[in-house]
Amino acid sequence: MIIIKNLVKKYGNFCALQGLSFEVKENEIFGLLGPNGAGKTTLIHILATLLKPTEGGAIVNGFDVLRDATKVRESIGVVFQAPSSDDMLTGYENLKVHALLYGIPRRLREKRISEVLKLVGLYERKNDQVKKYSGGMRRRLEIARGLLHQPKVFFLDEPTLGLDPQSRDTMWRYIKKIVKEEKVTIILTTHYMEEADMLCDRIAFISNGKIIALDSPSKLKQEIGGDIVKINFIDKIPSTIDFTYFDFVHRVEQNQKSVIIYMDEVNSNLHRLIKDLDGVQSIEYKKPTLNDVFLKFSGDSLSGDSPEGGFMQRYAQYKKS
Ligand SMILES: Nc1ncnc2c1ncn2[C@@H]1O[C@H](COP(=O)(O)OP(=O)(O)OP(=O)(O)O)[C@@H](O)[C@H]1O
Ligand SMILES: [Mg+2]
To answer: What is the mean pLDDT of residues 217-224?
Structure first.
């Protein structure tokens, strides 16, 4: 559905996209993840024909973003990072303006407006001014608007930015429903790893305008190297210990007083790991999350200096007598 080839975007001397190449399949939810300034919005703007690439190119729904920009625009819907509905108009009026701009034929217009309003759960509130909507409702209205002309590709730039956990959850359900009912391909950006994990079939991590990883969420998590165990020692790490001796251990990182071990099946193997250890203060473990993948690729270490070292799930306070 989308083919991106050697895409470069320069703003003056600054290179925001440094030669991206990848493809997005039909009916896929594809996530663009990466730190602030990575180039995600720039990429979406190029694919939506709002910006011209400096080098390289892209095909969207079979149309070239440079040569067939009008066809590309007819093929896509976009929800921008910054809100863009008219506060003074009602939800319905916002959609009607958009329908007129897109030249949706009169006989289809009302039916389609009702359809998308129902799709995002706003039909009952369609005659309220948008300024009376909550943040989540505004975001959903923008999604309805982006879908009005039945695009084949739908770009969502941070669709749940600023929403509370419940509204975010609601939004996820709508996004899943949209893929099923509207048969669109979705490209979304987000800073919420849980969201990407929950929604995306595949994810590209972008950093400094380059793709540093691209795969399904489960494969990306596997790449971290298994379950993660952190053993904190009361004093120094005993010098006689070599965790790499165990065949289920993939990788070991050491701080002064703690060891981080990437291993298979912590539930069945932990007892072997700690059987002969002295001076253990506590043990924490967790399954890798996309957050770990993000931190790994953005250069941070899981063994960071924070008190918890990024560990969210405390496994046990373990004191050996
Ligand atoms: N119009 C512009 N002129 C100059 N530099 C720009 C322009 N737009 C974006 N940039 C720069 O390009 C880089 C990529 O910006 P972009 O908005 O694509 O990042 P992003 O990944 O969407 O970030 P965020 O997660 O904060 O939304 C940034 O360093 C940004 O400052
Ligand atoms: Mg952005």
So the answer is: 85
Is the sign of the CA dihedral 285, 286, 292, 296 positive or negative? Answer: positive
- For the domain 2-220, what is the CATH code? 3.40.50.300
Question: Quick one: which atom of ligand 1 is closest to the CA of 40?
Answer: 21
Q: How confident is the model at residue 73 (pLDDT cuts 50, 70, 90)?
A: very high
Ligand 1 atom nearest to 206, measured from its CA: 21
- Report the atom number in ligand 1 closest to the C-alpha of 14: 5
Please tell me the distance between residue 60's alpha carbon and the centre of ligand 2 in angstroms: 20
Nearest CA to ligand 1 atom 6: 11
- Half-sphere exposure at residue 4, Cβ-oriented, CA atoms within 13 angstroms: 22
pTM of the model: 0.81
Assign 239 a pLDDT band (cuts: 50, 70, 90).
Answer: confident
pLDDT band for position 300 (cuts 50, 70, 90): very low
Q: Which CATH class is domain 225-297?
A: alpha beta
* Ligand 1 atom 5 nearest Cα: 11
Residues of the chain with CATH 3.30.70.250: 225-297
Q: Ligand 1: list residues with CB < 6 Å.
A: 11, 14, 16, 34, 36-42, 81
pLDDT, tens digit (0-9, with 9 covering 90-100), for 120-175: 899 999 999 999 999 889 989 999 999 999 999 999 999 888 888 888 888 898 89
Q: Where in the chain is the domain with CATH 3.40.50.300?
A: 2-220
Residues across the chain: 321
